[in-house]
């Protein structure tokens, strides 16, 4: 578990601060102020029905779930799933694309809003004390490498809750996205991704669609490119070296990479492994695949109707897939096509983004 969690988007399990950080904006968003609700309601389809930048993923039947010994329990049992054909963004949504959305709608992301403690505490274990006001600010989680080896059970060593960090300022105040139009947008919550999709006339992929697409037409392969280990050649943007203090950058990138920097998979999809984690539409349940298996050959599954993560039972979570520039074979191996990740719909991090389907 320790190893697994090192690049987990929801890295906020172990401390009150952590729980607070990951959960607070979710409840803020759910309850929301009137202005926040209005900002969502006012988003309408931009009218662009073209398939520019998308590729068609032919439908088919596949075995969904883990393919090797790195697979976690929630990737089993492997089970048969059929998905209909759909169109998918060929790359992660970029800063330039997200900027157009914000310009058109005035949308304010989760990370740019101050959390509301009265709403937040409803989603926390009973008796959770209120965090210091200094924590209840518009902020997001920024990865910061350490200078030496650290206790890998302590996420606070490399994740910082940074006031002012958001998609326009990925590292916090003083940082910006100038010259990074074609980089994946980050610090995007699931709610933010849904708002973008609404504007774009698209939607988030289901978890089954995402995995089917990531497999690129290969049967039971471990990675989007097949079974060859990620260290053989240049495959994807991941973390090479000793986490979180030594990044060998053999893939050429310390942090984010521009989209389409690596070879696409068999469906011409880029970065289905690594770069940024990608939100899916589905709720996360650790035991969902058992339910799916019992249902037999399921077609276009939409995921469970509720969420349960035994790591954080009070926090409903959505699925994220594909791994990020922080993933390493020694822990989460998030670039495996079957790896499941989960985080609360409000959480944004410096390695979290998305792509859409229609
Ligand atoms: Ca890298
Ligand atoms: Ca990705």
TrEMBL record:
Residues 295-314 are annotated as: Disordered. PROSITE patterns: PROKAR_LIPOPROTEIN. Pfam families: FGE-sulfatase (PF03781). Residues 51-358 form the Sulfatase-modifying factor enzyme-like domain. SUPFAM superfamilies: C-type lectin-like (SSF56436). Residues 1-24 form the signal peptide. InterPro entries: CTDL_fold (IPR016187), Sulfatase_Mod_Factor_Kinase (IPR051043), SUMF_dom (IPR005532), SUMF_sf (IPR042095). Keywords: Signal. Coiled coil: none annotated. It comes from the Bacteria. GO terms for molecular function: formylglycine-generating oxidase activity. Gene3D superfamilies: paralog of FGE (formylglycine-generating enzyme). This is SUMF1/EgtB/PvdO family nonheme iron enzyme. The lineage of its organism: Bacteria, Pseudomonadati, Bacteroidota, Sphingobacteriia, Sphingobacteriales.
């Amino acid at each position: 578990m320790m190893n697994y969690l090192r690049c987990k988007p929801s890295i906020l399990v172990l401390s009150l601060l952590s729980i607070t950080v990951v959960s607070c904006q979710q409840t803020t968003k759910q309850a929301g102020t009137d202005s926040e609700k209005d900002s969502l309601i006012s988003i309408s389809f931009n009218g662009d029905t073209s398939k520019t930048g998308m590729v068609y993923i032919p439908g088919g039947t596949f075995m969904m779930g883990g393919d090797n010994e790195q697979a976690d329990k929630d990737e089993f049992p492997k089970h048969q799933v059929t998905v209909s054909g759909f169109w998918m963004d060929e790359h992660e949504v970029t800063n330039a694309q997200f900027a157009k959305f914000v310009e058109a709608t005035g949308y304010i992301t989760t990370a740019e809003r101050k959390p509301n403690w009265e709403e937040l505490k409803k989603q926390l274990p009973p008796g959770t004390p209120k965090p210091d006001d200094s924590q209840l600010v518009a902020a997001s989680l920024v990865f910061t490498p350490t200078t030496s080896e650290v206790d890998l059970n302590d996420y606070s060593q490399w994740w910082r809750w940074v006031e002012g960090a958001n998609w326009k300022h990925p590292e916090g105040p003083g940082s910006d996205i100038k010259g990074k139009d074609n980089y994946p947008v980050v610090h995007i919550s699931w709610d933010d991704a849904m708002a973008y999709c609404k504007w774009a006339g698209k939607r988030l992929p289901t978890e089954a669609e995402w995995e089917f697409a990531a497999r690129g037409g290969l049967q039971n392969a471990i990675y989007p490119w097949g079974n060859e280990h990620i260290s053989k050649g240049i495959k994807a943007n991941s973390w090479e070296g000793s986490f979180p203090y030594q990044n060998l950058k053999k893939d050429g990138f310390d942090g984010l990479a521009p989209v389409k920097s690596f070879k696409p998979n068999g469906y011409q999809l880029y970065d289905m492994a690594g770069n940024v984690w990608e939100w899916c539409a589905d709720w996360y349940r650790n035991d969902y695949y058992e339910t799916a298996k019992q249902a037999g050959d399921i077609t276009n599954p939409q995921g469970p109707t509720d969420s349960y993560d035994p790591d954080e039972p009070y926090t409903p979570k959505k699925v994220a897939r594909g791994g990020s520039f922080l993933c390493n074979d020694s822990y989460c191996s998030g670039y495996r096509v079957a790896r499941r990740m989960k985080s609360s719909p409000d959480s944004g991090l410096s390695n979290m983004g998305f792509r859409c389907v229609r």
